[in-house]
Records
---
Amino acid sequence: MPKDCIFCKIVAGQIPCFKVYEDEHTLAFMDINPVNPGHCLVVPKIHAPNLFESEDAELARTMAAVRKVSRAVQKALNPYGLNLLQANGPGAAQSVFHLHIHIIPRERDDDLRMNWGLKAGNKDEIAKISEKIRD
Ligand code: DGP
């Protein structure tokens, strides 16, 4: 585990998160800067900095978890739609260099665009939504 990887620390339980799903290979938790309510992230537990350096098997397991969590988000929050996003490299605005897939619930006319600026979320609201998805 790279010493300075924030998502490795979350996987190891050294930094808290609002967890919504976990299995042997993957972890899903709420994004701390949600672009829309219910925005969450799915990560492989084994560190890979990006898509290019990930293993096929890890990627397949991660995407299976993405589908599972996406179904939970859809059921819990009934969004208008869902976007999946993976920022690959600084040029694509990747800011955390541990592979992760964003699950972004969409609202009608939310006017969401790619490469949004980071804005701190409301922790109470994030916690409440995470309970709905986890259930
Ligand atoms: P990206 O820019 O695609 O690398 O997305 C990184 C996301 O990770 C960004 O939306 C904010 C989120 N994030 C950064 N640090 C933390 C953290 O400590 N906890 C949680 N839950 N999310 C984080």
Note: The longest strand covers residues 101-106.
---
Amino acid sequence: MKTSLHVDLGERSYNILIGEGLIGKAGTLLAPILKRPRVIVITDENVAKLHLVPLVNSLNACEIKNQTIILSEGEQTKSFAELEKLLDTLLESAPDRNTTLIALGGGVIGDITGFAASIILRGIDFIQIPTTLLAQVDSSVGGKTGVNTRQGKNLIGSFYQPKLVIADTSALLTLPKRELLSGYAEAVKYGVINDYPFFVWLEEHGARAIEGDMDALAHIILESCKTKAEIVGHDERESGLRAILNFGHTLGHALELETGYSKTLLHGESIAIGMLLALHLSVTRGLCDMEDYERVRLHFSKVGLPTSPRDVAEKWSASRLIQHCYKDKKAQDGGLTFVLAKGIGKTIISHDVTRQELETLLAETL
Ligand code: NAD
Ligand code: GLY
């Protein structure tokens, strides 16, 4: 069974296909949208071992010429240095404007491949085949691409939409539980920002998904992608509404930068902590009840996600974290843009969070 969603962006519109075993059918699914039957698959060393063979077999079965480039796994791969190496290898393979790139992997592979596709030969097509829960609920949809720099996360990149997203839920069977949980945090985000019934569903059924129940996982991916597709359809380039998708990200990204984009803190884990810090700030501002904060904290804690920076490290530098927040992409005229919650299911975008408020928040939570 396969479900299909549409991301409505005029001439940049595309479909998201969700279902079991889709990697093995990828050749048939993507053949109709290729300009020419030639693709270059970009993946990482872990995913290559687990999911590359069925993809290549299905491409061969459809007579789609293909090559593969295998990158190192992990967040460190999303760097300028790795991008340069990737572009170099791609150019050695002599792609032309009708060649299509395929990102087979998690958010790291999706983000760097999408960025490479957006700049090579001034832009060629690319397709997302996300293999982590995080990539299936979030990063493969919406066209944000890029790399990290020493100044912060995703500060170099482009908005560049894929031509198709193929989310094969079976790929999640090989995903380590910690990675599954990291993606789960981004799914909870959709509940907290604008879908209270989904948050309630996650409270009741989320644990089942984390144990590997395929129907529950498919439901989570579908509901998450519905919300993301709708928001991106209204505000592709984040001139307003789309910023709510960054709930928990200002401090979350600061925590990630402080831990050197390492396995100390996975992306979704940092966002879980960042969401709770944003909720804490929302409570202090009188926007949100303490019970709402507690409810989200309890849910994260029940499923096994970190709930405080202290769960990750004993010592943090508040001043450095605050400095990172001011380098966030959403900062405007030197001031912070912060997504805050008005209870569970409703968010607002604030431009007046002060340094003093952040100092107080971090003094209470670090
Ligand atoms: P990731 O790509 O590093 O994947 C996590 C780990 O899982 C890696 O070790 C990978 O090799 C492994 N893996 C992937 N699929 C697997 C599978 N099926 N079985 C076993 N192992 C598998 O990380 P991620 O969590 O997928 O993505 C995080 C990145 O996504 C961050 O860089 C973040 O900034 C970015 N992101 C981007 C957007 C966007 O809109 N573009 C949104 C959210 C996050
Ligand atoms: N993950 C945030 C966005 O896509 O806008």
Note: The mean pLDDT is 96.
---
Amino acid sequence: MRHGRFQESMSNLLRDYGESISFDWRLYRHDILGSIAHARALRSAGYLTEDEFASIESGLKKIGEEISAGEFSFSVDLEDIHMNIERELTTRIGDAGAKLHTARSRNDQVSTDLRLYLKDEIATLQKGVRVLQGALVGLASANELVLIPGYTHLQRAQPVPLAHHLLAYVEMLDRDHGRLHDTAFRMDELPLGSGALAASTLLLDREEIAKELGFSRVTQNSLDGVSDRDFALELLSALAILGMHLSRLSEDIVLWTTIEFGFAKLSDRHSTGSSLMPQKKNPDIAELTRGKTGRLYGNLFSLLTVLKGLPMSYNRDLQEDKEAIFDSVDTAKMALAVTAEMMTALIINQDNATSAASDPSLLATDLADELVRKKMPFRKAHDLVGQLAAESAKTGIPLDMLPMELIIKICPELMEEWGGLFDPIRSLKARSATGGPSPANVSMRLAYWKSILT
Ligand code: ARG
């Protein structure tokens, strides 16, 4: 590439500073697909003979196989994956190889490769999301009748089915799946043909190339085609949000597996020990996922910052997109898989969960609702039940065991049904609004998700 223009060879420092082959080699499969489609278009336009095309195609396929088998040696002197492959092809097949880069620049090539690569990775990530949803639905289904306290402010609030809690994550993950879908949709445009920035005087059939590579559309502005990485930002953002969801789920597991909560136990296969304290069984698996969310956010901010202030059109800064993208894709794929495995093997401690959910104070709101049914304004009902709760807190007598004289004094309206008001199942059955935690709703939603996920 330097032969024509430069007399001196590149400084070794610049070579090491600028190389991307150490990480962009993983675009090789998509680089080769893109090059074959480009070569086919060159042949159709008359810039390659049939024979030249055939030797390019078979040469590229051979190189692809060697890279897959780990038999190809990359050179940092050739900077990136695009030049490593092109140079090797030319070394092997001669002039035909030297024609491959006709009407193409690495600027449109790298954007094409990256989109092709990410479309595949997104499909894998979406499968990973579905697998985790399946694990959560499986766990929910196996424990459909188990109740836990629901929390706000991490204070016990109202009882909910454990399944309802797990299904909350299934809904969140479904939006993650949707965000990945949207990202793939907008990414689905072929930039090849944009050239370095101003397309080419040698015209190729871009629509044909798009079709061969599985792109739905071609980009409509050559400067935009080589310039923007918003498609990568959208993915990093979708993965940052996904990471946030996985982190929250992980935090719940960290809490649930404490002795203090005791709602669940990690399987031995998904727990770690302490090098010092023999009794410890630690949830490192969940903590790591919580911690790795930092990278997912960091990668998003790193690329946002790289892109900010770049003048039109391609700038070498854009090479800094790749490590952030690769790291987020790898991290998210692993986190999904690990979390799915951990949730599948999680052991629910039904006794602890049930006993915590039977805390009568969790039904205080139900007492107020009952008074409303008897035509009392809600604010007044809230106040009266608050007095009972305060008495219970002060004396240590559970709400349902308070002396009848006190009930008669503070809210005589509840006197008759008092004993029956503290049944969490009765409470849940009444919470039957769409999205509410009634057992019928939960079982309907479980059936829905099972039908989607199988
Ligand atoms: N390795 C480069 C990148 O990742 C490829 C494009 C280089 N283009 C250039 N004109 N130097 O962005």
Note: The pocket of arginine is lined by residues 20, 80, 106-107, 110, 316, 318-319 (CB under 6 Å).
---
Amino acid sequence: MTTGNQSAIEDQARLSEEAAALNMVAFWDVRGDIEPTEPRPRVHPHVWKWNEVAPRLHRSAHAIPLESAERRALLCSNPGLSPKPYMTDTILAAYSLYNPGEQAPVHRHTPSASRFLLEGAGGFTTVDGEKCMMRRGDVILTPNGTWHDHGNDGDEPIVWMDVLDLPLVESLNNSIFEFDYRETESQSNTGEPLQRATQQIRYPEDHSTQLYGQGGMVPLFGDKVRGRPGASPMLIYRGADIRAQLARLRDYPADPHDGVIIELVDPVTGGPVMSTLSYRAQLLRPGERTRTHRHTASTIYCVIEGGGVTRVNDTTLHWERNDAFCVPGWAWHSFQNTTPDDSVLYSVTDAPTLVKLGLYREEAGASADAS
Ligand code: GTQ
Ligand code: FE2
């Protein structure tokens, strides 16, 4: 406000003070802050380098007993969100290691969770009584409300990346974790459910894949017993299947912004595998360079294969195998595979949340600034 009147100027200041005393704020003092003309993500584009993470993770395997930590994870903490240890406003991502023979106790929570298996064989997650053995490149889902426990039956440490919508659920004040798991034991005399640290296996191996793993064919009998409403009933997507599908599509004219990109979908509805998050895999062919675009959804990436760069506004992120990085919402970005071999990225985006809320927008870069 401008005025030449001295007493009016003094009264402006007094009004702001008096408003504060009434737990109010004068709109004209904060207008720019609450009416941005475009999204202002606090998240920085950032890359977490596997060669820096791996030695610390392996040290933690000796220094941190699983019994004291429950989950032995190093969380990717975005410099723009500190002190919250989250990769983006909506997504938590962490590297986790489990030693041979270790078992993480069963629990469930309202945030939806998932793992990308990165290193080691013999690791498993039991989801609602179904044991899912994990191999490199596999994506395992534990949707909102599913009971899950983890373990390592192999003879080497296993490493995976956890991806959860926890910051999103927390921002809505709806985060609930439960650790009191009870099951009726087959040998129980009383029939009373007993507290257990791990679930009994109640389904055959690869059960949800048997039911739902053949694209285009789903069983008409029985309940939709797997998963939870709004999430995929298929609990594990095999890395080998993902890679084979990318290979089948590699000679197609691909997406100009993302290369050969596929979405992991709920085989019953065709929708995203989580109600909040979409999971994707993309192949960037040797030397491939994509055009720049932006969208209001933010995305986290995990490098499964190869190497390259992602340009995000004025920042260049260099990535290679097992690195993780993030692209904030509304940031211009493009990809380049800088190697003579294929590069494969897994990604998770909060686009389904924004679409459901009617907020999702995207824009292609002008061809002149396409990089
Ligand atoms: O899957 O429960 O790496 O709650 C960090 C926090 C995993 C999980 C993490 C979690 C989880
Ligand atoms: Fe969990």
Note: Residues 151 and 363 are 43 Å apart (CA to CA).
